[in-house]
Amino acid sequence: MFELLGIPPQALFGQLLIGLINGSFYALLSLGLTVIFGLLNIINFCHGALYMMGAFVAWLALQHFGLGYWAALFIAPVVVGAFGIVLERTMLRRLYKLDHLYGLLLTFGIALIVEGVFRNEFGASGLPYVIPDSLTGARNLGFMVLPNYRAWVIALSLFVCLATWYVIERTKLGAYLRAATENPTLVQAFGINVPRMITLTYGFGVGLAALAGVLAAPIYQVSPLMGSNLIIVVFAVVVIGGMGSIMGSIVTGFLLGLIEGLTKVFYPEASATVIFVILALVLLWRPQGLFGRRS
Q1: What are the φ and ψ backbone dihedral angles of 146, each rounded to 5 degrees?
Q2: pTM: predicted TM-score of the whole model, two decimal places
Q3: Which domains does the chain have, with CATH numbers?
Q4: Quick check: 41 and 107 in contact, CB under 8 A?
């Protein structure tokens, strides 16, 4: 059927794979943004810079300490999450009762500072990060060749996203988190340390960004600009899925990645703007997003 349209099946499935890869990063990053906004009411514009920091922590761990990819998967989220906790306790905590615009401006400034520091230290060109030996190679599926590392990225991203959704939506801890955003005084009356919970939630959200950075490092070159090139698209994904909707960010991230991949096959000129066209249509038809609730 696709050959009748002049499209080789290998090209179609190859672009779908690229779309799934991009969708994996969209889903992970938008999930972190959604967790932070839904539970802290902070529009975290420095999320892209923290994603970039995760990739650089993995690269530095390999270059200076000889710690490989598998160690970086745990180290980078912890290091960047700790950095996020410092940001929350020293800066963001002062803004919770103010308008969202103040948090947006502060995190935008933090993003510029972090990106500028890394650009001055490492330059704007990308740095290579090798795929671990255990994930090299590919599998021939008949209709396409699937690289092992890309399959791993998709599988791990999907697992982390669904596990996060389950914890927040289906467990007692998630119920406490959601209740703390609605009535922190009542939750604190049950002996729960709400400020500490909020701090750890922010650390977890930026840890997801760092995890995405480690996963992206072997696919894209590690660069100070890698976060700024992605964050606007991720914000569009969050708005389309619905601000504060965990499942919306996951489904929309993967779906928009696939749509972007298909657009590169059928109409390449629109591939860079198709997500923003969808954003405009969704805002006109359903301003609260596909999975969001009316306020």
Answers
A1: -105, 110
A2: 0.93
A3: 9-119+138-285 (1.10.3470)
A4: no
pLDDT tens column, 206-228: 999 999 999 999 998 899 999 98
Tokens 């998630």, residue?
174
* Residues composing the chain: 295
CA Rg, the chain, in Å?
Answer: 19
CB atoms closer than 10 angstroms to residue 4:
6
pLDDT, tens digit, 9 for 90 and up, residues 252-279: 999 999 999 989 888 888 888 999 999 9
For residue 274, count CB atoms less than 10 angstroms from its CB and return exposed for 0-12, middle for 13-18, buried for 19 or more. middle
What is d(CA 66, CA 57) in angstroms, rounded to the nearest whole number? 12
Tens digit of each residue's pLDDT (9 = 90 or more) over 285-295: 998 888 877 65
Give the model confidence (pLDDT) of 12-22 as tens digits. Answer: 788 888 899 99
